[in-house]
C-alpha cells in the first residue's frame, strides 16, 4: 500500500484534532500495523478483498459436477473426518487430509452429478486429538443449524443445498441508489415483531412490519439477532454459528426475501454483527473447536469476558482475521446486506473491555498498550478498509461508549474508518433526567451540551432510546413518563390526565430534539416510535418462559381509540419532514438560546428554525427568537397539533412569521412566536 502523501502515515487526523499531537507515535504505529497487514495480504492472498472471500473456500461447497468440497481449520487435530446422516455417522469412512497450515480438506465425489450429502441432512466434523480423544463439532463455517428443544438445546448442523437457490428480484436498485444521505434507522428484531405469544418469522416481518417501517419514513433497517445464537434471551449477542442465520425465524431464503423486499422499497439493510465475543458453547459453538481454548480465542483468562461469560477472539491470528473478515463479506455477498452495526466495540478496543472503567474524555485513556488492544483496533481498521474498498456505499456503525477519537475518521488519515458512532450518552441523559430531576430543574445548558458533544467531523447516530433501554430492569421512555396510567388512560374516551398529557408531550419533544440536534443520523427501536408499553423480556426460566413481554403490541397502535396512534403519527412526521429538509445531512446546529428560566432552546440547522419550550407550565406569547436568514417563515412541524395528540393551540393559517432586521441572541434578525408549554415548533423559510 504505497502513498506519496506524508500525512498518510496516520497523522492526517491531527488536522482535525490537534489535541491528539502528544499521541502521534501511537497513531503512526497503529497505522503502520494496518498498512503492513494490507501489504501482506496483497502479497500472499491477492489483496484484502480477495482474502475476505474465505467463505467461498472454507466450509462445504458443491461444485458444478455435484462434488462436495469441505475445508476446515483445526490445527490441533491429528485426524479428521466428515460424518452425518449420509454415511451413518461412520468416523472412518470419509477421512480428511491436513496441510501445513492446519487446514483439513476432503472432496466427496458425486453420484452421477447428485451430491453425496442430501440437502437439509445432519452433519458434523469428527476430530481426533493428540491424546487420542475424539470429539465431534459443528463445522465452523456451516450455513444452517437448527434446534429441536423437545430433544436437546444443542444445535444440529445441516447441509444446506436447496434445489432452487433464491433468485434476487430487485438487484436493479443498486446500493449507491439506496445509500441514504440522511440515515433514519429502524432497529428491529424479527422474533419479537409479532403480537402473538411466540417467535415471529422472516416472512411475517416482510409482510407485516416492513410496510410499517416504510410508511413511517425510515430508510434504514438494522436487524438484530440474525447470526445464530443458542439462547433466545441473549438478544442475539451469544453467537454460536457465525455463518448461519437464525433458524428460529425461518430459512435462509426467507431472510433473503426480506432483504430483497426492503431493497424494493429503497431501504438500506444493516446487520447487527457480533465480532466482539462468541458464545462459550463447545458442542454447537466454535469454543474449544479443535480441543484447545486458543484456536479462535486468546487462551486462559485473556480469552474470557467475565461480564458476558463468553470467549474473546485473538484478532492477531491470520486465520481468525480470515474468519471474521470473511464473515462480513459473506453477509454482503450472500444476503445482500448493506452494512453493519458492530456490537461491543468498547469491549474490543480496550484490554479492560470497559469493565469497571469510566471514561472522562481525557485523551490518555485512549492510548497505550496497557489500556488499548492493538490487535482488536487493527482488525476494526482492516474490516472498515475492506468493506469500503469493496463498496464505498457500505455503511459501518460502531457501538462505543468511550468516545475514542478517530473512530469515524478514514484509515488513510489515521482513523479506524467507521462511518458512524452511536451517541450512547444521549439516552442515558434522558433516563437520568426522568428518573432523578424534576421538570422545573431541567438544565437547558446540560441538555444542549450532551446533544452536541461529539467529535469534530465524526458522524454520530443520535437516539433517545434503543433496545438497551427497553430491556427488563429498565423501562422505555414512555413507561418512565406515564407508567401505570398507560394501562388506564390511553383511550381517547378516557380523561386526558396530567400524567398522560405530560408524558405524550415530552415523548415527542425528547425524540424531536434528539433527532434534530444530536447527530448526523437517527435511530429508533421497534415499537418505541408509538410509545410501546411496558418493557422487553425474553422467555426464560425466571419468567416461566413467557412470551408476554417478548413481542410488539401492534394492536394498541392499530386501535384508533387509543392515543398511541398520535405518537406514531408524530414520529412519522419527523422522518418525512427530515426527508424534505435534510437536517441530518446538514452542518451541526447553531444554538442561539438556552434559557434556564424560560426553559427555552432555540437553534438553526439545515435552513430550519427549531423552537423548544420545555417549561412545564409557562406558555409565551410574542416570544422573540433570533434567526440569521431574513424573510418570511412558516410552521412545518408543530408537536401540539391535534393529529399528534396535542391541544392545537396554534392556528397555522394565521401563523406567518416575518423577520425584523434587529440582532438578537447572536443572529442578525428576530421573529416573534407564540410557543405553548411543552411544545416544539419547526419553522421553514417561505421561498
Automatic annotation (TrEMBL):
GO terms for cellular component: cytoplasm. InterPro entries: A-amylase/branching_C, Branching_enzy, GH, GH13_cat_dom, Glyco_hydro_13_N, Glyco_hydro_b, Ig-like_fold, Ig_E-set. GO terms for molecular function: 1,4-alpha-glucan branching enzyme activity; cation binding; hydrolase activity, hydrolyzing O-glycosyl compounds. Its EC number is 2.4.1.18. It catalyses: Transfers a segment of a (1->4)-alpha-D-glucan chain to a primary hydroxy group in a similar glucan chain. One of its GO terms (biological process) is glycogen biosynthetic process. The active site is at residues 343, 399. Keywords: Glycogen biosynthesis, Glycosyltransferase, Hydrolase, Transferase. Pathway: Glycan biosynthesis; glycogen biosynthesis. The keyword Methyltransferase does not apply. It is an enzyme of class 2 (transferase). Pfam families: Alpha-amylase, Alpha-amylase_C, CBM_48. Residues 200-571 form the Glycosyl hydrolase family 13 catalytic domain. Glycogen-branching enzyme participates in the glycogen biosynthetic process along with glycogenin and glycogen synthase. Generates alpha-1,6-glucosidic branches from alpha-1,4-linked glucose chains, to increase solubility of the glycogen polymer. Belongs to the glycosyl hydrolase 13 family. GlgB subfamily. This is 1,4-alpha-glucan-branching enzyme.
Amino acid at each position: 500500500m504505497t502513498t506519496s502523501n506524508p500525512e498518510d502515515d496516520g497523522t492526517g487526523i491531527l488536522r482535525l484534532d490537534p489535541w491528539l499531537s502528544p499521541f502521534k507515535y501511537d497513531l503512526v504505529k497503529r497505522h503502520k500495523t494496518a498498512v503492513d497487514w494490507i501489504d501482506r495480504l496483497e502479497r500472499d492472498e491477492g489483496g484484502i478483498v480477495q482474502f475476505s472471500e474465505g467463505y467461498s473456500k472454507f466450509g462445504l461447497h458443491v461444485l458444478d459436477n455435484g462434488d462436495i468440497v469441505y475445508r476446515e481449520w483445526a490445527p490441533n487435530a491429528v485426524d479428521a473426518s466428515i460424518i452425518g446422516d449420509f454415511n451413518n455417522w461412520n468416523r472412518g469412512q470419509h477421512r480428511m487430509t491436513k496441510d501445513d497450515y492446519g487446514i483439513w480438506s476432503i472432496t466427496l465425489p458425486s453420484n452421477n452429478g447428485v451430491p453425496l450429502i442430501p440437502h437439509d441432512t445432519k452433519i458434523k466434523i469428527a476430530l481426533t486429538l493428540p491424546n487420542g480423544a475424539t470429539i465431534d463439532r459443528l463445522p465452523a463455517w456451516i450455513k444452517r443449524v437448527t434446534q429441536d428443544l423437545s430433544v436437546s438445546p444443542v444445535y444440529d448442523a445441516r447441509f444446506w443445498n436447496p434445489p432452487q437457490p433464491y433468485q434476487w428480484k430487485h438487484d436493479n436498485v443498486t446500493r449507491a441508489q439506496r445509500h441514504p444521505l440522511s440515515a433514519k434507522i429502524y432497529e428491529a428484531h424479527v422474533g419479537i415483531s409479532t403480537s402473538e405469544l411466540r417467535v415471529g418469522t422472516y416472512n411475517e416481518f416482510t409482510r407485516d412490519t416492513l410496510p410499517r417501517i416504510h410508511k413511517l419514513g425510515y430508510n434504514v433497517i438494522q436487524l438484530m439477532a440474525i447470526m445464530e445464537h443458542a439462547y433466545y434471551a441473549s438478544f442475539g449477542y451469544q453467537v454460536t454459528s457465525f455463518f448461519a442465520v437464525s433458524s428460529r425465524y425461518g430459512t435462509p431464503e426467507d431472510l433473503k426475501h426480506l432483504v430483497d423486499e426492503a431493497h424494493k422499497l429503497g431501504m438500506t439493510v444493516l446487520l447487527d454483527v457480533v465480532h466482539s465475543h462468541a458464545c462459550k458453547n463447545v458442542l454447537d459453538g466454535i469454543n474449544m473447536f479443535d480441543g484447545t481454548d486458543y484456536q479462535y480465542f486468546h487462551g486462559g483468562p485473556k480469552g474470557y469476558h467475565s461480564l458476558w461469560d463468553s470467549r474473546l477472539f485473538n484478532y492477531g491470528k491470520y486465520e481468525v482475521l480470515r474468519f471474521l473478515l470473511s464473515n462480513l463479506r459473506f453477509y454482503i455477498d450472500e444476503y445482500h446486506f448493506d452494512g453493519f452495526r458492530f456490537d461491543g466495540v468498547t469491549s474490543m478496543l480496550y484490554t479492560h473491555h470497559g469493565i469497571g472503567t469510566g471514561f472522562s474524555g481525557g485523551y490518555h485513556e485512549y492510548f497505550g498498550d496497557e489500556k488499548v488492544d492493538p490487535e482488536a483496533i487493527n482488525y476494526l481498521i482492516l474490516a472498515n478498509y475492506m468493506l469500503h474498498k469493496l463498496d464505498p456505499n457500505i455503511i459501518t456503525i460502531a457501538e462505543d461508549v468511550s468516545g475514542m477519537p478517530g473512530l469515524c475518521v478514514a484509515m488513510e488519515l489515521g482513523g479506524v474508518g467507521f462511518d458512524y458512532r452511536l451517541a450512547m450518552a444521549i439516552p442515558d441523559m434522558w433516563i437520568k433526567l426522568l428518573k432523578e430531576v424534576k421538570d422545573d430543574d431541567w438544565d437547558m445548558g446540560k441538555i444542549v451540551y450532551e446533544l452536541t458533544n461529539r467529535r469534530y467531523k465524526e458522524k454520530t447516530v443520535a437516539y433517545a432510546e434503543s433496545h438497551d433501554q427497553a430491556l427488563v430492569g429498565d423501562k422505555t421512555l414512555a413507561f418512565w413518563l406515564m407508567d401505570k396510567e398507560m394501562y388506564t388512560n390511553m383511550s381517547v374516551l378516557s380523561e386526558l390526565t396530567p400524567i398522560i398529557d405530560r408524558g405524550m408531550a415530552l415523548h415527542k419533544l425528547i425524540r424531536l430534539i434528539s433527532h434534530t440536534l444530536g447527530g448526523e443520523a437517527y435511530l429508533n427501536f421497534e415499537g418505541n416510535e408509538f410509545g410501546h408499553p411496558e418493557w422487553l423480556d425474553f422467555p426464560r426460566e425466571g419468567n416461566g418462559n413467557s412470551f408476554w413481554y417478548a413481542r410488539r403490541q401492534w394492536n394498541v397502535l392499530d386501535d384508533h381509540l387509543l392515543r398511541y396512534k398520535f405518537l406514531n403519527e408524530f414520529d412519522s412526521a419527523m422522518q418525512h419532514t427530515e426527508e424534505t429538509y435534510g437536517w441530518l445531512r446538514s452542518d451541526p446546529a447553531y444554538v442561539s438560546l438556552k434559557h434556564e428560566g424560560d426553559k427555552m432552546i432555540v437553534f438553526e440547522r439545515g435552513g430550519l428554525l427549531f423552537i423548544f419550550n420545555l417549561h412545564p407550565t409557562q406558555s409565551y406569547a410574542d416570544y422573540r427568537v433570533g434567526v440569521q436568514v431574513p424573510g418570511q417563515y412558516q410552521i412545518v412541524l408543530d408537536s401540539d397539533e391535534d393529529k399528534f395528540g396535542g391541544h392545537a393551540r396554534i392556528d397555522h393559517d394565521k401563523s406567518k412569521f416575518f423577520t425584523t432586521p434587529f440582532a438578537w441572541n447572536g443572529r442578525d434578525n428576530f421573529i416573534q412566536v407564540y410557543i405553548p408549554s411543552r411544545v416544539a415548533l419547526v419553522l421553514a423559510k417561505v421561498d
